[in-house]
Amino acid sequence: MPGPGPHLMYAMSSGLAVTHLTKGRFSPHHTLTYTLNAFFGPDIGSFSEWLSSTFFAGSSLVSSLADSIHHPFYYVLILGLPLCVFYSCASNFLVQRNLLDSVSGVPLSRRQCLLLIGAGSLSHFFLDHLFEENGHSSMYTWILSTGWWINRAPVNPDAVIVVGFLCACLIGGFIYINRARMTKSTRKQSYQSMKLILIIGSLYCLWCASQIYLVNPRRPAVGEEADLGVLIFLATYFLLPHCLCILSMNSEDLHTEQLPL
């Protein structure tokens, strides 16, 4: 699986991109907290298991707890509360000592830290699921299982019609929402465009799942493509963590200059 370097550089470069695009509303404090959780966060479980085997003769309790922590969602459920308190206090310390620029002069709240912990955990497993166990991880195997590998996939007319209709609706709807108008709100257009993507994506996944799990015998949903697995994986481990990062940003009414402490 990926080591410290890829986890650190992937998360930090993503955080810096969001910082640049938001003009500092996603501050260096956000990037640092997100990066630390994407780097070492869920691996606390593996590290504690190593400590247990080294100094405590491999306690079964510690081992089972370590396995639970090394999980994209259990990590947040088990350690989310204490870690968000810790990171919030650390952010406050860094602001008071002027050790790390927060742009607005305001430290991260516990809510913001919890969102960043969740984003970091999911980003960690974005790399782990793709590049661990020699390409035979349970997640990667499931993604491939949603494709068609028996023989040459037949092209079913109903699949062509449904997939073509959904893709046409996505493109046509995007053009309609973002059409040239005298008065427009970029934020509103982006929100409506995202709603359109979610609706079409949900219908697309519903179609794929019906062909894979409901129809007997199973039929290829989109030729040989593993679209269901790819869409769910990207939505969970790529889009969701970035959405959590966006939700953790500082509000626009905070001053862009550092506040007196």
Describe what you observe in this structure.
The protein has 261 residues and is an all-alpha fold. 68% of the residues lie in helices and 0% in strands. It has ten helices and no strands. Helix 5 packs across helix 6 (110-131). The longest helix has 29 residues, at 186-214.
Q: How many E strands? A: 0
Number of helical regions: 10
Taken in chain order, the helices and strands follow as: HHHHHHHHHH
- Helical amount: 55-70%
Average pLDDT for all residues: 88
**What gyration radius follows from the Cα positions, in whole Å?**
22 Å
Keyword list:
261 residues; mainly alpha; 10 helices; flat; disordered C terminus
Task: Put the structure in a nutshell.
The protein has about 260 residues and is mostly helical. The chain is about 70% helix and about 0% strand.
Secondary structure: elements and pairs:
Elements: H1 4-21, H2 28-39, H3 43-55, H4 60-69, H5 74-96, H6 110-131, H7 138-145, H8 157-177, H9 186-214, H10 227-247
